[in-house]
């Protein structure tokens, strides 16, 4: 499968860091620069004319980036909100998602059926462990393997992308596994191989 991985544009949590988190704000939106970065991806996403599915994190900054970078696909292909591609959860309130009903109001063309329950049930005061993030990323790969679409765009987050590319897949090119900049898009080909484990 051809997968176009997109890190969200600059969010207020990127700009203000600890100040934003100390005020307990949830689900950071994009800054003006972040919106510009997302719109800047439009040229690339229009060239990638084979996209058949858009997957977005339930966090606002990723969904907003997808909406601004691929408006031409809103009514053309399915859009799915997927909890497995959400950023590393816990501790930082910017990574706590809003209620599902709020997200649905902002992005009504996205199918949010996989995002349950209504309130974020994953976020806690403790940071999610790396293995848990890796397990989510791997579960997403398995879900994606079963989808019929051959070309997919995924709007998500830096730590999740780093985990995916460094612990769940073998990257032929180490540059692909490097940390993503805000508003960056990288295209990868996923080749699934079934391994048979024996005693």
What does this structure look like?
By secondary structure, the chain is α/β, with parallel strands linked by helices. The chain has a single domain (2-189), classed as 3-Layer(aba) Sandwich (Rossmann fold). It has helices at 12-16, 18-22, 32-40, 42-47, 60-69, 100-106, 130-146, 158-168, and strands at 2-7, 53-56, 79-81, 151-156, 185-189. Strand 2, helix 5 and strand 3 (79-81) form a beta-alpha-beta unit. The longest helix is centred in the last third of the chain and has 17 residues, at 130-146. The model has no long low-confidence stretch (mean pLDDT 86).
Chain-wise SSE layout:
Blueprint: E1 2-7, H1 12-16, H2 18-22, H3 32-40, H4 42-47, E2 53-56, H5 60-69, E3 79-81, H6 100-106, H7 130-146, E4 151-156, H8 158-168, E5 185-189
Parallel strand pairs: 1-4, 2-3, 2-4
Antiparallel strand pairs: 1-5
Helix pairs in contact: 3-5, 7-8
